[in-house]
């Protein structure tokens, strides 16, 4: 099965979409405690820029609990530029500023190629599953990925104390699974991060992050 051809067909299908309708769910657990549960039901018209979202959030952190529900609707100007490349960028948000020059460009290329090489595909119940697991990556790529995540966490640390939970993650493991139907439409993407973190008393804790994006079959063609 040619994974590059599958990815090409998926991106081509995304490019031709006029709207996305779906649900994004994010869950964060520290040991057995749920720190965050976020659910975002959204509709986005890529031609008009109109976006509707219903967001539910439950937060339990450092003795503080909060629940919030909101409905929002807005239109982004110049939305015609929001196409498949931005959709992919939102699925992979860790684009840290890299080094300049040829060496920096070659490092980025090597990183991208190592990720592509590690991709696995399989057929299951009439669907194609594209998966990426940390165990299939070379050590230098895993180290670089961990650095990108930590660097992004440090950059955002001043915005919310909750972010510090992700800065000092050790022994990071992750898995990405993309479920594609026969029309090369993305039906679901599941991303899981698992790692350990030591608190101020040097006690280790298990940290698990699970994000699931489900896209409706009603999305515009």
Short description:
The chain has one domain.
Structural class: alpha+beta
Query: Which word captures the global form?
Result: globular
- By DSSP, the count of extended strands is 9
Main sheet strand line-up: 4-3-2-1-9-8-7-6-5
Task: Return residue spans where pLDDT drops below 50 for at least 5 consecutive residues.
Answer: 79-85, 87-98
| CA distance, first residue to last residue | 26 Å
The helix-strand sequence is HEEEEHHEEHEEE
Total helices: the number is: 4
Break the fold down into its secondary structure elements and pairings.
Blueprint lengths: L2 H13 L3 E12 L2 E13 L4 E12 L2 E12 L8 H8 L9 H18 L1 E5 L2 E7 L5 H18 L13 E11 L5 E13 L5 E12 L6
Antiparallel strand pairs: 1-2, 1-9, 2-3, 3-4, 5-6, 6-7, 7-8, 8-9
């Amino acid at each position: 099965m040619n994974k590059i051809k599958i990815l090409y067909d998926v991106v081509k299908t995304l490019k031709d979409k006029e709207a996305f309708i779906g649900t994004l769910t994010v869950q964060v657990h520290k040991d057995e405690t749920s720190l965050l549960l976020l659910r975002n039901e959204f509709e986005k018209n890529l031609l008009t820029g109109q976006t509707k979202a219903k967001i539910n959030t439950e937060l339990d952190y450092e003795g503080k609990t909060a629940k919030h529900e909101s409905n929002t609707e807005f239109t982004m100007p110049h939305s015609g530029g929001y196409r498949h490349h931005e959709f992919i960028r939102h699925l992979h948000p860790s684009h840290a500023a890299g080094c300049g020059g040829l060496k920096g460009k070659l490092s980025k290329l090597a990183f991208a190629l190592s990720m592509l090489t590690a991709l696995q595909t399989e057929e299951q119940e009439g669907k194609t599953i594209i998966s990426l697991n940390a165990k299939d990556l070379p050590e230098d790529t895993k180290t670089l990925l961990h650095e990108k995540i930590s660097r992004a966490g440090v950059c955002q640390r001043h915005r919310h104390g909750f972010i510090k939970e992700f800065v000092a993650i050790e022994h990071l493991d992750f898995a990405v699974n993309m479920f594609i139907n026969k029309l090369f439409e993305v039906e679901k993407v599941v991303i899981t991060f698992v790692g350990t973190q030591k608190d101020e008393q040097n006690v280790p804790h298990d940290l698990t992050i699970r994000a699931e994006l489900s896209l409706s079959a009603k999305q515009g063609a």
